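Re: the pair you flagged

First of the two:
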Amino acid sequence: MTFKNFKLETDADGIAVVTWDIPGRSMNVLDETSASELEQIVKQTTADSAVKGVVITTGKEAFCGGTDLSMVERMSKEYTWALKEKGEITANQMLFEQSRRLSLALRSIETSGKPWAATINGLALGGGFEITLCCHYRVVADNPETRLGLPEVKVGLLPGVGGTQRVPRLAPPRDAMMMLLKGDPVTVDKARQLNLVHAILPAADLIKAAKDWIKSGGKAVAPWDEKDFNLPGGPIYSKNGMMTFPGGNAIYRRDTYDNYPAARAIMSCVYEGLQLPIDSALRVESRYFAKILRSNEAAAMMRSLYLSRQELDKGSRRPKNVPPSKIKKVAVIGAGFVGASVGYISARAGKEVVLINRHQENSENAKTRVKSVFDDLIRRGHSSESDRDATLARMSATVDYAAIKDCDLIIESVFEDRSVKSAAYAKAEPFLKEGAIFATNTSTLPITSLAGAFKDQAKFIGIHFFSPVEKMMLVEIIVGKNTGDAALATALDYVRQIGKTPIVVNDFRGFFANRCVARYIGEGNHMFLEGVPPAMIENCAKMAGMPVGPLSLSDETALDLRLKIMRATEADLGPNAIDQADKNLMVELVEKQGRFGRKNGKGFYDYPDKGKGRKSLWRGLADLQPKHLDPDTLSVEELKQRFLVVQAVEAVRTVEDNVITDPRDADVGSILGFGFAPFTGGTLSYIEFMGTKKFVELCRKFEAKYGSRFTPPELLVEMAEKGETFYGRFASNRQPVPA
């Protein structure tokens, strides 16, 4: 039988080599075709008496990048259809059987009576890693790029083809739970330490080693099918088990606030499954998988964090009329903390980088900072000296603007001041080569007004990096009124080449991310002035799903900078453009109390010297509150909702203002850019899964109680009346993903 995604060859010793090599793709993924063909291969090799054993390997550099969630999304859509057409019982049974199909196929590998060996090189993630776990022998390449893991929880799912049952039967329970709940992949050495693989060898020796194991009598029985099998951590109700699961439950609640059904289901799968024989345990897993797949959280996270993000990463917002560009050399003007980081990620992506500062010493300091970042990575085993040296060799530091003459892209990252930026443009423009694109890294200043100081405005665009640049995956690309398609295409190509995720927004003060973040921080300040205890403000924000509280975030972004931005906005747009009570609070903290935030060790929080110890809320905060509310009289649920609703309303305003034209940008941008509760799928998905009508009703309630910042925009009211969704109304703005 001929297969599309696999090649099956049996050698003279009767060993079948199954090579996974999906045509036209750089990496294998567990898609519908692969799942179906693997099922057929298992049946065929099991029935063929000439086959003595099976080796499954890859024809690509990596074994498998994970499960194709388009397949999972299709299952969800079919369930929705069946629920409507055939009723709940039939729909639930159909979804369970679909969830179970591949799990049964992999289980048949274990019980085939023939030894299966897996050879792993590069990535083996998600469903791909689960395939290797059901093999009787796993040999992995001694390759620093190799990673094994189950990242499903990061997109609102749980491993559905055996991962929650096989990992905790191989690895110590605490390590297994950490791997499943965090979703982070492990290195080769860690995988061997956890008993997830049997041997580590050079990549060239993997298939031979797998065949030798089969020929030497490799046992075709999984450990859990042995009569004398014992769990690595002992029985659930043993002393060790009772130390693991109650503590794990506490950690789960601390980290998730019970916002993530998939994480809860993983814990239940492991706890229940380890008390059962493997076949019953796998059935439990399939039931939980089917249950989670029906949740709003899974649908929202899959759409935003996998499907939409993948589409944006592949260039769905890129103008189709512009040929692809390869940015070879980049200049960064203003190589301070952020600028040096931009230079670092550009050089690490293989580009030549010129760092330009007013003083040579500052330019050299930027390179020194890059070296210190690398040294830290090397200490933690995440990089090498050769990688560091090669990256630094691609970077040069100077004060001479003439150095940009052969650069394809120039990124200005000077102080957030129009006059300073204009001066940099004047110095740079005479040296720009034909076709070069000029970008400004600004977080608030309108691009169109900045472009007024630039001669060829079609080549001028905004590229807003989020700090810390090395860690933050989002880049906000801002299109000015006169920005041309070539500039947009080049910016998107560059962001893709440095491995970041881009969103495209139109010009407006604060753009998208900072407008929403300002509302989040402002709501925390409103609560503070209302008399809500500061600790309650912070904790309720985190309970709502935000990564840090608004008072803490204010400190991180600098209180004095926030006051400066408020005053600049007021000067440009008038006193009604900002909240005066909020401004007065900033004046009190910054100018009267000398509290600038983390930068000077005191803001809403006090910070220990040199990072020793933990930060703590400043005890003097109570004196700045006009009144003090009794926390026992406050609704935690309402406080949580206020944080999410005020950001979501602002996101709708950005749609109404034509800043956001594609809902994917708002959802992906809000999660990656400022940590908007990932379980919601992002700011617009939060509204969509609640229902626009219900959301408008909630806005009206908060508007009456707290003010106009909760007033639902006319667009949202209209959508609620028509029963529309953002992904339905703006579907025409979403371009298909390039092949």
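Second of the two:
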Amino acid sequence: MNFMTSSLPWWSWLTLLMVPPLIFLLYFLKLRRTPVQVPSTYLWSKTIEDMHVNSFWQRLRRNLLLFLQVLFALMLLATCLRPGCDGTELVGARFIFLIDNSASMSATDNAQGKPRLETAKLEISNAIQNMPAGSSAMLISFSDSASVQQSYTSNKSELQRKLAQIKQTQRTSDLNEALTAAAGLANPGRSSDKASALDVQVADALDAVLYIYSDGGVRQVPRFAPGSLSPEYHAVGSFENRPTNVGITAFSVGEPSAIDGSVQIFARLQNSDDVDQTVDVSFYVGDALQDAVGDILVTAGGTKGISFNLSGESASVNQPTTVQLKIDDEDVFMLDNEAFAVLNPPRKTNVIIISENTPYFRYACSTDAITKRTNVEFHGAEYLNDSTYLQRAQEGYYDLAIYDSLVPQTMPLCNTMIWNQIPLGDQWNRSAVHSPTPVLDYDGAHPIMAAVKIGGLTIVNSRDLEGPQGSLSLIESTTGSIAVLGPREGYLDLVMGFSIIETDENGETYVNSDWPKKLSFPIFMQNVIEDLSGISAFSAGANLHPGDLMTIKPSIPLEKIKIQSPGGETTEIRPQADRTFVFSNTETSGIYEVSDALSGIVDQRIAVNLMDANESNIAVRADLNLGYSQLQRVTSQIPERKEFWRWLLMGGLILLMVEWIIYNRRVFI
């Protein structure tokens, strides 16, 4: 039998300790009598009785009510001390508790049907109670990132409070960041003294026991040196029977058919059980059931691919439409039983071409693939100073700007293509003129160069290009890169090191390249516009996971947007300098609705899905690989403390009821 330190302040204890003496004092109080006319014989008997009661110094008579009331007060005091019997005390002076709150920890595969996270929190709570006096502990929760819930403290009540505040997430699981945080204090870094060439330990290593509470479904830890840490892996979940779960690990919408506009929907199911499973799935477009398939067999530990055909009529949407795949069968892990995609209606992108030689570009942009999906403006060089252009360029109106042999003073808020010039600033450099320029190689794997055959291309004059860090060379000559794709604060600039038409010192023009005469030129321009302006028949949205950063570009420039989460919460945000919106609160899987904050018109919907094969495999791992070491799961968990205070409290309440019954019998009988 032992007692726990209570979190009650000293004045509360003082008040409680005064209760038993006050009960005794109440029984010593003298009675205040009211004059009443009674028979003389009765008066004498009552007077003799009062002499015994009202005498302060006379020994108290045996009184059952007094005994019951004092006993109840003592039981109440004992309850506040939380008596109980606990197991073996933890060995050590410092402890670090890592608790996994990733998506798989919501699986309900234990006997009580509780989530794994609740089981882990209960085990850690017992471990905190069993910490020896004077020891300290740290509490860290982790999913794909780590969060230090409580730094080192010896306050058990504070540790318990912070433990109770840990919430379930729908994120994936990665132990690396949590291990780095845990090792920060136990294994201090080293400092190098350049003057003396000495490697000096900046602080003494502090031994600590590292308790990892997880189901083991974490990403691989490439390397981890425990140093002064003594890690233990406490596996959470069912070991007797492998949990049954069939989940959706992939869901995508294909491009529409050029013949009838139909769309293929692809999905992959994964079975984490060690026996074959059959499931029924339903496919919805909006709220309407589009298709359903029953008794899909997914082999033990395997995957199964399925597909649905969405007719051209159903795929042709005029407003953002949700596409949903749902597994109808319930299991112990429901987060992967649904997957979402979005059909956002097609919109024409806005492309501006500023050139004094527009016939070549007009010819290249006259294909059906471009005219049906793109609004292309053609202007001369004087348009660079036009107020309409300047306003649109800085509002993000354009999706792509193409400049031929000129460059704007201020780069527009969109992707660009620049011929025979480089963007202003020190990020780009170009060499002197080379002549002639034989093409040596090109990057045929890049979407901009897809199906572009530039063999035999003639270029008279060119300059080698050098872009900012992260640039990609698309076309190379014998002397260097003559087509480079470089980054610019969230945008891309495709810079060409040559021109199609050159103007000499006398103002006379001549052809510098025969590329416009070749079939590859319109194909190249179509690729540039499709890739850099982002046109498509429709947008199925990016494949985002819970916790990912959501970058939103509305179909038209907006001053403020409103985002509604799957749970119904709304958030209003304003654009960044590049006129895009960034939203980080994507903790829940489902559909996020983006609308104009002023008009309320829905602009687009964005899908967030778990779809992670590692999280859907909810089988509890028997060991945990920490890179340099392999941890076997701890089979004997820390003994749970048995609390007696609940029984004391219940007994006290029963005692209070007995006292009340006895008192009332004396009054009314």
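The first strand starts at residue 84 and ends at 85.

-B.
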